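Z., the sequence and structure:
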Amino acid sequence: MTRSQRPRSARRRIVTGAALACAVALALVGGVTFTAQAAALWSAGAPLDPLLMPMTVFGVASVVTIVLVVLVGWFVAGAALRSIAEV
C-alpha cells in the first residue's frame, strides 16, 4: 500500500506534527514569559510566589489548547483525507 492508501497513517502524521509544533510554541512562550516575569520580580526584590498561580493557569491553558488543536487537526485531516479518497 502506498501512503495515499493509508489515511489513518497520514492523519496520525499530520496530527502528531501539529501537536508537536503547538507544544514547542507553547513551551517557548511559557519559558520566555516565566523568565521575564521572574526577572522583573527578582530585580524589584519581590518574592516569586505571585508567579505560581499565573503559571499554573498558563500550564492548564496550554494543555487545553494542545488538546483542542489536536482534535481540530484530527477532524480537518480526516475530512481532507475522506474527500481525497472519494475522488
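The helical segments are 7-43, 52-86. The CA atoms of residues 17 and 58 lie 22 Å apart.

Let me know what you think.
H.
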